[in-house]
Each structure stands twice: as C-alpha cells, then as structure tokens.
Write a structure and sequence with these properties.
The structure holds two protein chains of two kinds.
Chain A: E1 3-5, H1 6-20, E2 24-28, H2 44-48, E3 53-55, H3 60-71, E4 76-83, H4 84-87, H5 91-98, H6 101-104, E5 114-119, H7 134-138, E6 144-146, H8 151-163, E7 168-173, E8 180-182, E9 196-199, E10 204-208, H9 211-225, E11 230-234, E12 237-239, H10 243-253, E13 256-263, H11 268-280, E14 289-293, H12 302-308, H13 312-323
Parallel strand pairs in A: 2-3, 2-4, 4-5, 5-7, 6-7, 10-11, 10-13, 13-14
Antiparallel strand pairs in A: 1-8, 6-12, 9-11
Helix pairs in contact in A: 1-8, 3-5, 9-13, 10-11
Chain B: H1 2-20, H2 35-42, E1 50-53, H3 58-64, H4 68-75, E2 99-102, H5 110-122, E3 129-134, H6 141-152, E4 157-163, E5 166-167, E6 170-171, H7 172-175, H8 181-186, E7 192-196, H9 200-215, E8 221-226, H10 244-251, H11 255-266, H12 271-294
Parallel strand pairs in B: 1-2, 1-3, 3-4, 4-8, 7-8
Antiparallel strand pairs in B: 5-6
Classes of the chains: A alpha/beta, B alpha/beta.
Chain lengths: 324, 314
C-alpha cells in the first residue's frame, strides 16, 4: 500500500468527493490559491476551479454561517477554519445555529456540512494557538465530532463526513500533518461510531485519540518492556462514540487510562471515566486514570509547554500507578 | 396586502391574549406597528425565493403563506406546530414556503442568508434571498462580515433592515455610532435605500425594484425601513424607555388605516369590504387558537427526534 502524509490525506479525500459529487465545495481562509496553511487543500483550486474552492476573507462567523445557508439549500460545503482557535470566533454560528437548526426547526432541514479545523499544541504557539477543545463540541448535541489519528483514518472518515447528512466538526491535529501512513489505492470509507483497537493487550486499556494515540502507542511499547501489555483504543469519532468497544476492553483488562490533549477539568476524559464507572464499577481493579493537559492556558516557554501537555511518559506513569 | 396586515395584527393580538393566559410560554416578540414592512417586502418576492427573519418573525411567516393554524400551534408548543413544538415563537420555519426561519441571536442569521445567496448563485438560478434584520443587528460583527462577503461575491441577497429605533431598550442613537443604517451598506459598496416603513405601498415599491435589481445579478442591496413597534421589545417588556408622546405620534401613522384610507379614497374598496376582511382575519385567528388548544402536545418519544438525520445505532 502506498504511504501518504496526513495533509495529503485531506487532499485525497476532498478531491475524490468533489469529483464524485458536484455539490461539494470548499471554502475558507487561504484554501484556494495558497492551498491551505497546512497544505491540506493544495491542488484543489487548480483541479476544481475558484468557483468550488473559494478563498474567503478572514471572517470565521461568516464562513460557517454561509456554509450553513448553502447546506440548507442544496450544496454540501466543506468549510475550513484554519485552526479551531479561530473557530472560537465562530462559536455562535457553530453552537447556536449549526448544531441546533435541525432540531429547533422540527426536522425540516438538514445540514450536510463539514467544518474542518486544526487543533493541538506542542509547537510553542502559546495560549491562543494551542487548543484541544473537542469536549466543548462533544458536549453539544447536534454536531458530530471526528478526530482522526492516521492518514488512513482521515481519508475514510473525511469521505464519510462529506457524505453525511449531519453537520460534522472534523478535527485534524496540527502535530500530525507531516505524519505518514499507508492507505489502499482503491476508494474506501470508514463508518462513524466504530473504534479501532490500535494495539491489543490484556493488562490495561488506554483510550486515546488524535495525536495522543501515538503517545499511547509509545507508552505501550515502553510498558511492554516492563511486562505490561496495554490495549490501545482509538474511538476515532467522539460523537458518535463507540462506548461498547471501550467497555468491552475494560471489562477484560479491568483497568483504564484515558489520554487526551484537552484540559482535564470537565473534559472528555472525565466523561469516559464516568461512563466506565457507571457500567463496570464492580469489575474495575483500580480507579480510572486520566492523562490530560494541565488546566492552564498553554504557555510559550518550551519547558513549561512540555509540562502543560501530556505525553507518552505521563501515560506510562498513569498505567504504572494502577498496575503495580 | 391589506388582508395580510390585518391578519398579522389579529394573529398577534390573539397570541398576546394567549400569552397573558399562560397558554404561550417563553419570549414572544410582537410585530404590531411594523406590519407594513414584512408585508410590503415579502409580497415583492416570487414563491420560491427564500426569506428569513429574526426572533420577531410571526408576521414574516404569515405573509409567506404559512398556515396560521400551524404557527399558532407552534406558539402553544403543540405537536402540530410548524416546528413540532420544538422552536416556539422565535424559530418559525416553513421549508415548503421557502421560509428559512426565525433566529434568536441578533444578527446570527445574516451569514446564513448570505450562504443561501451563495447557493442560489452557485446553482445558477435567479432566485433571491430576503433577510430581515433589526437596527440592533447592524452593530453586530456578523452584519459587517455578511455584507462584506455578499458584496465581494455579488450574492443575490436583499437585506431589509426594520429600523424601529430601539435595540431591545436602547435607543439607536445610543447604540450606533453612525445611525443611518442604509449608509452603513454603502460602506461596502452596497446600494442602501431608506423607505417609510409605515407605508406598505412605499415598502412594496422599493422592494420590487430592489428585488428586480438583485435578481439580475447586480449583487446585494439593503433597504432600511423606518418603523415602530407599538409594544415593548417582548411580552415581558413594557417599553417604558420610550415616551408616551413618541408612541402616540407613531400610532397616528398606523399602516393599516393608512392603506384603508387610500383604498377607500381611490374607490378600490368600500367599508363593507374592509369589515369583511377584519371579520375573516378574526375568524382565522380564533380558528387557529382553537386548533392549537385542541392539538396534542408533542409525544415524549419525540424528545430525541431530529437531533441528527443519521443515528449510527446510537
């Protein structure tokens, strides 16, 4: 199978979907001529023209609102927010409008639209450019939240997202754009709500997504040398969430660690931890552990940033805490 | 248009009664006094043009042709309401009538309107979008983002600003550094016109011309209709920030008797016909209220319906 990079996976998925369906179009800041800040839409304007790959002003609320209006009336927009930091500028559109329209209007309208945005820290971009706030959106009914960790997952999930009748928030990790992975040459799609066991194991279940999957896999390698076999599960989509696969794994291993890059306080890890305890309280050998970002705005200084963000060693430490 | 205006007023008077009786909950923003704007503007559209409004949206849905029964049932929170009881007063929506909704966040619907315009343009048809907004919305960031993008791409959008001079309780002079709203549009290269919003014929004439202009592909326009709401911002606001004298002055310009008078003078109608129209509107509203009252509340099983199209087994 050929190997491609994560940003090329975006290009491939969008090009395939735009070829398949005339109604799909892309809009966002620098998506056309520049080809995207992370090169994710490179080549699309040359292939599909400026009508279907639309450079917008720096106006995030308008980008999302316009995507919504066009999705209500026959088109299938893929809006890029560059990074989710700027998506916060468009929070009203995402939360008050996009996620609520279908329900509030009694099911009369559907919004087949995708909002793509980069998330994540780790490259000294400081507080306003280092967010992993997926839990905000998982907390909101009406919008699906997709968090691919590999080029393979990205292609399959982005294509499914473009074809979905529901609004999708598709979160790509900035630190993964250069990462490589194999994908088949033939077309494929991946379903929502199906987690993947990225590594099987018997002693502890580590649930991780996006970039933390790779940290969890590194942690599992380290632990393996200590004789601890960790099972690493990537939910791949946080909403819908494949809780059955997670619970099935924890029921076997009887220990769980949740590893996320988002803030710890009231985060996705807290939700997963709670769900595991609701269902498996008597099967657990130890309290569920959470590895997450420190509850501070992400600092600039390299040493402080490293302290603030979780990594493989933190995951190892958390596992050791409940397996020794 | 006269029938539309009379129906709007009766509908809202009926809704106000029901609200006072506790049959309608939540926020409810009445349009009484502004009838000429929605009526003059929306009747200038084709049936398949899109229209969308703010949280003060009863009139727009009525003029668009939504059934008074389904609208009243929505106010009562009934399963037979236009949004199955999920939207209420601020979120009327009628896909069949190309009425794309009322929105509760000031200005939040303006980029959505621009997006509908983009959709029409990309699909290569000549349909237009009419978006209503209040004076308060012109101070919101999305107003400026939306006008900028609508002009940048020459989208077929008619923005109709209903300037009733108050953003909730704050006088436009205290909220807008520059309060000639039609000129704000000109700052984006968008033609901006001002019209007497108490005169339905003037609104209709201006909107017909602007809709024609927009339909030809000349890009967006903004019409500022100066008007007045007789009541407060919502049912829970008595509007005490305004003087009695000011309100009385505007009530003398009431759009309904104004049109009646000109029709009578022109000999188009007689008093008998006007009485019939009033009676018919009254009967329609009473019927709608009875229908709403007798309609079932939404079934508990509908709580989780319509969040998503696709369930993924969840």
């Amino acid at each position: 199978m050929p190997e491609i990079r994560y940003f090329e996976a975006v290009q491939r998925a969008l090009a395939e979907e735009m070829t398949r369906d005339e109604r799909v179009y892309v809009l966002g800041e620098d998506v056309g001529l520049v080809g995207g800040t992370f090169r994710a839409t490179e080549g699309l304007m040359a292939e599909f023209g400026a009508r279907r790959v639309r450079d917008t002003p720096i106006a995030e609320a308008a980008i999302i609102g316009m995507a919504m209006g066009s999705a209500m009336s026959g088109l299938r927009p893929v809006a890029e927010l560059m990074t989710l930091n700027f998506g916060i500028v468009a929070m009203d559109q995402i939360i008050n409008h996009v996620s609520k329209a279908r329900y509030m209007f009694g099911g009369q309208v559907s919004l087949p639209m995708v909002i793509r945005a980069a998330v994540g820290g780790g490259t000294q971009k400081s507080a306003q450019h280092s967010h992993s706030v997926e839990s905000w959106f998982v907390n909101t009914p009406g919008i699906r939240v997709i968090v691919p960790s590999t080029p393979y997952d990205l292609v399959g999930l982005l294509k499914t997202s473009v074809r979905s009748e529901d609004p999708i928030l598709f979160l790509e990790h900035e630190g993964l754009y250069g990462s490589r992975g194999e994908i088949p040459e033939e077309e494929y799609l991946l379903p929502f709500g199906v987690a993947e066991v990225k590594r099987p194991g018997r002693d502890v279940t580590i649930v991780a997504w996006s970039k933390m999957v790779h940290e969890a896999l590194k942690a599992a390698e380290i632990l393996s040398r200590e004789g601890i076999e960790a099972e690493v599960i990537d939910p791949r989509t946080l909403d819908p969430l494949d809780i059955d696969t997670i619970l099935g794994s924890v029921a076997r291993t009887r220990r769980a660690v949740i590893a996320e890059e988002g803030w710890r306080n009231v985060g996705m890890g807290a939700e997963l931890s709670s769900r595991i305890q609701e269902h498996l309280f008597y099967e657990l050998e130890a309290p569920v552990q959470r590895v997450a970002a420190a509850d501070v705005p992400t600092p600039y200084a390299k040493n402080l940033e490293k302290l603030a963000l979780p990594d493989a060693q933190r995951v190892v430490d958390a596992v050791l805490k409940i397996t020794l | 248009m006269y029938e539309d205006m009379v129906l709007i007023r009766r509908f809202e008077e009926g809704a106000a009664e029901a609200y006072a009786d506790g049959l309608i909950g939540g926020f409810m923003h009445l349009y009484i006094g502004q009838e000429a704007v929605a009526t003059g503007a929306i009747t200038a559209l084709n049936h398949d043009d899109y229209a969308l409004g703010t949280y003060r949206v009863h009139a727009h849905a009525l003029v668009r042709g939504s059934s008074p029964r389904s609208l009243m049932a929505e106010l009562y929170g009934r399963a037979t309401g236009c949004c199955k009881g999920k939207g209420g007063s601020m979120h009327f929506f009628d896909a069949e009538k190309y009425f794309m909704g009322g929105y509760g966040i000031v200005g939040g619907h303006l980029p959505i309107a621009a997006g509908l315009g983009l959709s029409m343009q990309m699909q290569g048809n000549d349909r237009v979008v009419m978006a209503f907004l209040g004076d308060g919305a012109s101070n919101q960031g999305v107003f400026h983002e939306s006008l900028n993008m609508a002009k940048l791409w020459d989208l077929p959008v008619v923005f109709v600003c209903e300037n009733n001079f108050y953003g909730i309780g704050t006088d436009v002079r205290n909220s807008s550094a520059f309060n000639e709203i039609h000129k704000k549009a000109q700052g984006y290269g968008i033609p901006g016109h001002v019209v007497n919003g108490m005169d339905v014929l003037a609104v209709r004439e201006a909107c017909e011309e602007m809709v024609r202009h927009v339909r030809q592909g000349s890009g967006p326009v903004l019409i500022e209709a100066r008007c007045y709401r007789y009541g407060g911002h919502s049912m829970t606001d008595a509007g005490k920030y305004r003087s009695v004298a000011e309100a009385e002055l505007w009530k003398k310009r009431d759009p309904i008797p104004r049109l009646a008078k000109s029709m009578l003078e022109a000999g188009i109608v007689d008093q008998e016909r006007l009485d019939q129209i009033a009676e018919k509107a009254n009967a329609t509203v009473i019927d709608a209220m009875m229908y709403a009252e007798e309609s079932p509340v939404p079934d508990a099983s509908s709580l989780y319906d319509d969040v998503y199209v696709e369930n993924h087994g969840a």
